[in-house]
Amino acid sequence: MPEILENLGSTLTSVVDILLVATFIYYILYPLKGTRSARIAIGIVFLILLYYISDRFQLQTMAWLLQNFMGYIVLVVIVIFQADIRKALATFGRNPFFDFFHIGKQDIDYLVELQRAVNLMAQRNIGALIVIERELELKNLVDSGSRLDSEVRSELLLSLFNTHGPLHDGAVIISAGRIANAGAILPLTSRTDISKEYGTRHRAALGLSEESDAVVIVVSEERGTVSLALEGQMSQLDTALELERRLAPLLKY
Question: Contact at 8 Å (CB) between 206 and 194?
Answer without folding.
Answer: yes
